[in-house]
User: Fold these one by one.
Assistant:
Number 1:
Amino acid sequence: MTQMNLASSMLLVTGLATIFTTFAQCGPAKATTNAQDPQHTKNVGEQDPVQPPPDAIRILISGLMLGRLEPCGCASGQLGGLARRMQHIGEQRNYDLLLEGGNIVSGSSELDKQKLFTAAQILFTMERSYDAVGVGLHDLELPLADWSDFLLGGPAVASNLTSTAEAWPAKPFQEKIIRDKTVRIASLLMSELPEALRSEKSHVMRTDPVIAWTGVFEGQADTMMRIAMVHGTDVQIRGIIPKLTPRPDLVIGVDPGYIEPDGAAALVAGVPLVFTGIRGRVVLDARLWRDGDTSRVACETVPLAGSQTIPGGGGDPNVKEVIMMHRMNVAESNVLALMAEQKPTPNGDSYVGTTQCTICHPTAAKAWGASKHAHAWQTLVDAEADPKRYGWPVTKYPDCVGCHVIGYGEQSGFKTYEDTPSLANVGCERCHGPGSGHMISGGKKKMGIIGGVLKSEMCAQCHDFEQSPDFLYTDRWKLIEHGLEPK
Ligand code: HEC
Ligand code: HEC
Ligand code: HEC
Ligand code: HEC
């Protein structure tokens, strides 16, 4: 997509957002009273449940979207999606702060770029705009020019990152006054910068998170509420909390290893700690207040159920429109072709296509032909043609294609159905790896499992906890069982 296109679609969306602000279905976010709501008193760390006072600060927290604008819809009951999230937020009338931990996308591909652009429109320019978004390692992977273009003017915060670049979009903190209380939000990155950003020429520098935190609150009254979003592992996050002075009122852990947050805050050195979870599947609804010197948090998780990519599925219609525009842009600018054949194959050999294997492995080929893997491409074609299911160009969307074909993104791998029909579907080489060497050697060069990983791990590259929630290798293998030719 050209810069022109980006600019004009940004205008269009801003225009849409304005229109829908005028005809807002839900009242504007009022940072006034907080009605007491017994639903929100589930837990307070180690203390017994305590009713939050009416003036507690209500914070809606999400994070680690990792490129998941919407669930793929491969299984029923998937959670999350921006359309559903923004609908939920729109239904809330009395929240005070909207926080996004960061790592909105998880790579630096052309698709990631377009996803970040789309997410930034939804999170920062539409009716309900986020107050702060942290900066994680993945966010730094995209070239600064793209990243800063999309986030400039957005509420990016990175307290222990400094940059010499003029277009650096992040501030050391974000701040909001809520019922006479000032709340300041910092974001700390625990890990070292990626290799590429550690050179002399790099525009970005990482400083000590403990010192950066102290700097954010230097000279500020103790009445200021202090929130830290911390990017790191569970151990890193718990480790830094006791070292932070002044003491945070709330720490939000942005940890990709913490898949599903509980509706409970942990207490670390007296500081309430919550996690965002991953892929934007839930929103954390937290109330924060001080009880004398003690910071308290009551929270619950809101699973974003009912989100579907299908027409008529749940979600904010304006957000759905923006996401649909993104999908159309991805198809029109042929991102699928741009991202094909970018990296070498795992064993250096080339993909030859499923039909080549059939010659020497007729029995395995027969079993495969009867399995659903042999229809994975047709499934996408059907989904695309069926307006009741998807009705948008899923065969041109790299995420969908990647799990339904052989070797997409790798040299000699799937490009388009027209170019590489024998690499469509989850064919032999998706599981056994590229077969040119094996074929030429008449079967002497071993195939094994692609990348040398465990069989069950290989299945889980696609059958993950969302696509196949109750996947058990031993059960599912029986449904695709095959092997050597009978002697
Ligand atoms: C490249 C991604 C990918 C990998 C790797 C993969 N699958 Fe699948 N699998 C799919 C897709 C896509 C479908 C659905 C195809 C359709 O319905 O069109 C599927 C469907 C299935 C089905 C039929 C539906 C069901 O669950 O009853 C079984 C069984 C299955 N896979 C087992 C496995 C096993 C066992 C492994 C590992 C040995 C594996 N798959 C590895 C993508 C994958
Ligand atoms: C991470 C890999 C992955 C991605 C990404 C993915 N799929 Fe799938 N898809 C699967 C697997 C695995 C299955 C089989 C699930 C099962 O039955 O256990 C499947 C099944 C399906 C099915 C059949 C479901 C049914 O009810 O029969 C459809 C349709 C589908 N996928 C469409 C899509 C579309 C459209 C996208 C992109 C929006 C997509 N997939 C992205 C892995 C993936
Ligand atoms: C979804 C992944 C997947 C697909 C697709 C697949 N296989 Fe396999 N295949 C496996 C796994 C996993 C095993 C190992 C099973 C075991 O050892 O228990 C296996 C085993 C085999 C074996 C026997 C290996 C041995 O040493 O005993 C042969 C031969 C084979 N596959 C050939 C093929 C051919 C040919 C195709 C395509 C027509 C194919 N496979 C498609 C996953 C797959
Ligand atoms: C020219 C014939 C030929 C072709 C083509 C061929 N194979 Fe084989 N393959 C063999 C022979 C021979 C063996 C060893 C069989 C035996 O020991 O019974 C073998 C063994 C295997 C095995 C089990 C041992 C191992 O290396 O892991 C797998 C898996 C396998 N082939 C997959 C494939 C796949 C996938 C393709 C297509 C890319 C393919 N083969 C194409 C001849 C072939």
Number 2:
Amino acid sequence: MVTLTIRIQPMLKRLGLVHGTAVLAALLSLQVAQAQAPAAPSPAFPGWAYPVNPPAVPFDDKKLQRAPGSKKRFTQAQIEDNFTPPDWHPEDHPALPDVVAVGRKPAVSACMKCHLTNGGGHPGSSDLAGLSVGYIQQQMAAFRDGNRTGGRATPMIPISKAINEEEILAAARYYSSLPPQPAGWRTIKEGDRVPVSFIHTGGMRLPSPGGHKEPLGDRIIELPQNAEHVELRDSRAGFWSTAPKGSFKKGEKLVKEVGGKTIACATCHGPDLNGLVDVPGLLGRSPLYIYRQLNDIKIGARKGGTVALMQPVVANLDEGDMLAIAAYLTSQKPKHKS
Ligand code: HEC
Ligand code: HEC
């Protein structure tokens, strides 16, 4: 226990959490002491949370696509190109740095292709809006240094190896300055049946034709609110998820309880879970993304630096616990940082 406290204190200091460090460390020691033996390891990358991209196919480069409320036109080939993603609504966001808008050939793909101009991201990538500049910089280093190797980290690895410090800073400042998505952009409800679905280009799950339903089982299914709109990579096109019944209540207990199966998240992620210094905010994000991170940390596919602080948090959580936590956190509305 003493060893753990000693290990944790410098890390809290690095994060800027100097005030109350002693209290935090004491609280952590207490909670870690109360935690039980680790649960059995889970299958590495469950398919519902880690969509596997189907083989790439050539995209139509003739037909001009339109998005609601935009006068712009792009072909699907342009939309899917790593260096020409569409900015359908320039009026919706601040000026885009080049690295976000067009990237740099051959390996720095334009960030907005996957993370969108609003930083909302797609369920197969990640939302970036409002993360701190320091946190984004740390994550780019983590991908580069082999500390983030989870099943969906693949696109970030070549980018992180080719990008330079100025580009990282420009992208980080841009995404950090953005507010959370408007209410309704990402919704989640509990249920037990979901549309039958399949994984399309880029790892996007879409409803299968025919409108049939199937049992949800032990999964969270996140789908576009409008499949055609999302396929245009339009930042105005949002998502809805279904989580198993009882997830929100179970997740809330795990997130808030002191001395339970895990460590209360507010200890480090801020009293309202909107983030604290360089510890990221957790609310209103894709449930698939949150689940992947908890799982990656648990199985050691995300490690290094301050990730050590998260290891005791996930040590005793099983798949059902992580799923419930992800569902609950998504159901909570993030706050715009002042
Ligand atoms: C081809 C798609 C793609 C492009 C382009 C892309 N990313 Fe990512 N990014 C991803 C995926 C997928 C993940 C999530 C990995 C996971 O689930 O572990 C991710 C995650 C991240 C994260 C981690 C977020 C967090 O909360 O820890 C950061 C930071 C990030 N990307 C920054 C960037 C920047 C900056 C650029 C542009 C230079 C960029 N990305 C371009 C696909 C992409
Ligand atoms: C002891 C401090 C501490 C506690 C307690 C803690 N976290 Fe974390 N968490 C961190 C730090 C630090 C990071 C950033 C790690 C890094 O550098 O990549 C993090 C990262 C995360 C991430 C990844 C976010 C992203 O953008 O990729 C998730 C998800 C997460 N924590 C969830 C939780 C949940 C859920 C709880 C409570 C059950 C919790 N954390 C409790 C310190 C903590």
